[in-house]
Amino acid sequence: MANPQWVLVVNSGSSSLKYQVVDAVSGRTAATGIVERIGGPGRLRHTTDAGTHEEDVTCRDHRAALAAGRAALAEHGPDLDELGLFAVGHRVVHGGPHFSEPVVVDDDVFAAIVELVPLAPLHNPANLQGIRSARESFPGVPQVAVFDTAFHQTLPREAFTYAVPAPWREQHQVRRYGFHGTSHRYVSRRTAELLHRSPQECNVIVLHLGNGASACAVQGGRSIDTSMGLSPLEGLVMGTRSGDVDPAMGAYLARVANLDAAAYDEALNTRSGLLALAGTSDLRELEQRRRSGDAGAELAFAVMVYRLRKYVGAYAVALGRVDAIAFTGGIGENSVSVRAGVLDGLGVLGVELDAAANADGEPERRVTTDDSSVAAWVVPTDEELEIARACLAVLPGGRG
Questions:
Q1: Which of 5, 3, 1 is nearest to 394 (CA)?
Q2: What is the pLDDT of residue 399?
Q3: Binding site residues, as ranges?
Q4: Which residues are known binding-site members for Mg(2+)?
Q5: Residues in contact with 209: Cβ distance below 8 Å, sequence separation at least 6, in sequence order
Q6: Fewest 10 Å CB contacts: which of 57, 290, 336, 358?
Q7: Does domain 6-147 have CATH number 3.90.1300.10?
Q8: Do residues 207 and 346 make contact, with C-beta atoms less than 8 angstroms apart?
Q9: What is the C-alpha R_g of the chain?
Q10: How confident is the model at residue 177 (pLDDT cuts 50, 70, 90)?
Q11: Residues 6+ apart with CB under 8 A from 331
């Protein structure tokens, strides 16, 4: 067996910090952890093969959160000094139009990510705090930035270009970027393996469904279209995000409801989607209400599933041939009813749902019949492993 190459994967959110210690060669995870509610009284949860340790913590910032995580690693294992870290890999949400691959973080790269903050004001600042803290905590260990948008840099011009004035596109970098790229890359490659094909021979539609959700058309291992756009707001119906709406709606509401741009943006991002239609952004609660006959829950489910089927149909045309549909993310991996709702409506593509396989089975499994023209699979995503392997690919001495 090849010698392990351990990577600490850091995912810094606005009020949380997740970390995972993973061997990028074998895929083995030695520890996972999360520090929640940064900026006030919070909670740390650290898990290894030996069990889970939880404690209350108060972390004023991401530096303190990373220090709390490192202390948990030192006390409960594994000891990072003994392992010998190969790299620290960071999830960065927005890489703009230029970052098409993972990069080693130096001062110039850090400054470039700072310049991209206007494109992702809710995400990139937190990602930057995580990078800054890790550079201070692990000064001798290479830091690698892996961008959510990078996988979608292969979109053709006709797919990423908005028909808007040239100054918007040229001066303000307005275009489709797409997100969840690390997940889409991992799941599309894994789906090709399940079909016993190389990624270059396989066309896959990946549905990454969670509180945030996106669809991606992957042709021969390359993203050619995706549902999220300039921001993660465009596309599918999500937990609190609206997805696609008429662009004129903002101006209309400004006229009739005195809604300014900030309030409009906040409403579409945090008070729309399933929450607006059913009063909850939690799909499990929505499905319980739906079973009890709740009309709002039924409408929310129908709108969400219809939008999914519409995107699958559009991407089938864009790809020309579909070898598989892959469901991933918390909803994609766990919701029997969402998968059934999507696949039952795809008979025009020759999709035949296997109801028994969809209802129960291994976490990774096929959920269509042997006669189905297009295979549909449940493929649990592993973004942390994908980030760790990206570190191997970009650093000298990496074996991936």
A1: 5
A2: 59
A3: 11, 18, 91, 208-212, 282-284, 330-334, 383
A4: 11, 383
A5: 236, 308, 327, 328, 329, 330, 331, 332, 335, 338
A6: 336
A7: no
A8: no
A9: 21
A10: very high
A11: 209, 210, 213, 283, 338
Residue 148 catalytic?
yes
Q: pLDDT tens digit string along 235-246?
A: 999 999 999 999
33-to-40, 49, 86, 387 alpha-carbon distances in Å: 18, 12, 19, 16
Catalytic residue among 81, 108, 148, 370: 148
Cα–Cα distance, 179 to 258 (Å, whole number): 32
The predicted structure's pLDDT at residue 1: 53
Asked whether the domain spanning 197-383 has the same topology as the one spanning 6-147, the reply is yes
In this structure, what token pair is assigned to residue 31?
């520890």
pLDDT at 396: 85
Please enumerate, by residue number, every residue annotated as part of a binding site for substrate. Answer: 91
* Cis preceding linkage at 118, omega within 30: no
Given a cut of 90, whether residue 6 has pLDDT beyond it is: yes
Confidence of residue 37 (pLDDT cuts 50, 70, 90): very high
Known binding residues for ATP: 18, 208-212, 282-284, 330-334
Sequence spans of domains, the chain: 6-147, 197-383
Lowest mean pLDDT segment, chosen from 124-128, 165-169, 202-206: 124-128
So what's the pLDDT on residue 57?
Answer: 95
CB 210 within 8 A of CB 184: no
pTM of the prediction? 0.94
Distance CA 339, CA 4 (A): 37
Q: Which CATH number fits domain 197-383: 3.40.50.620, 3.40.50.1780, 3.30.300.130, 3.30.420.40?
A: 3.30.420.40
